[in-house]
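Q: What changes when pyridoxal-5'-phosphate is included in the input?
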Amino acid sequence: MNKATVERCAELVANYEGVLARITKCATSYGRNASEIRLLPVSKYKPAEDILALHEQLNIEHFGENYVQELVSKASTLPKTIKWHFIGALQKNKIKDLAKIENLYMLETASDYAKMKKLNDLRQEGFPKVNILLQINTLNEEQKAGLLYSNKEAIVEVVKQIVSTCPNLVFKGFMTIGSIEESTKTDGSPNKDFQRLVEIRDAVKDLEGVGELELSMGMSNDFEEAIRQGSTQVRVGTAIFGARYTK
Ligand SMILES: *Cc1c(COP(=O)(O)O)cnc(C)c1O
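A: The predicted holo structure follows.
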C-alpha cells in the first residue's frame, strides 16, 4: 500500500492531537476524566493511507466508516490491529459482508432486531464478538434513522432481545447523530439530542445482563458540548481529515 506523504502525516498527527487536546481541556473543565472519552476518527471517503498514518504514528486503533463496501476494502488492506466501527446506514443484504470482517469492533447504527440477529447468526465462530450501539432518533422525526426516542418500551425490548438471544454480540449503549439546529444553537441551553440519549441510557442501565454503557455522541462541530453532557465517544471526521467530497 502507498504511504501518505511526510507532509500529510504531519498534518494528520497535528489535527488529531489538536482535537485530543481540546477533548482533554474540555473534560477537565467539566470535572471528567479524559481517559473515559474515546476519540473515534471518522475516515469515510478518505484514503487508506491516511488511516495507516494515524495507526502507525500514534497507535490509533479505532476508526469509523460509513459504507460497507468501503470498509470491506479498507479492512482487507489495512493492519488487523485496527478496530473498526461501522457508523453508516446498514442494509440487510450487506450484513453478511460486515460479519466477515474479523476486526469489526462495533456496529453503532443498530436499530432493528432482525438485522442484529442476522449479524449474530452470520458472525463466524472464533471471530471476536461485535459490540452494539443502538442508534436513537432523538428528535423523533419519522424520516430519520434509528429507534424513536419516544418509544422507550420498544428500546427496552430490543435491548432485552439482544442480550438474551445474540451471544455473538455485546450490547454496549447508544448513539445519536442529532440535529443541526441543536448543535448550532447559541443560547447556552443543553443540546436536547444529547440529553435524550442520556435519558435512554438511564432507562436501560439496570436491566439484567447490561454492563457499563457507552454514549456515542458529538461530531466535529459539537463534541465539546457532547462531552459536557456525558459523551463517552466523539466521532470526528472533518476536524482530523479535512473536508470531504460529498456523494
Ligand atoms: C461523517 C460522520 C461523522 C463525522 O462528521 P464530522 O462532522 O466530519 O466530524 C460522525 N458521525 C457520523 C454518523 C457520520 O456519518
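Observations recorded in class: Residues 42, 44, 66, 87, 177, 219-220, 235-239 surround pyridoxal-5'-phosphate (CB under 6 Å).
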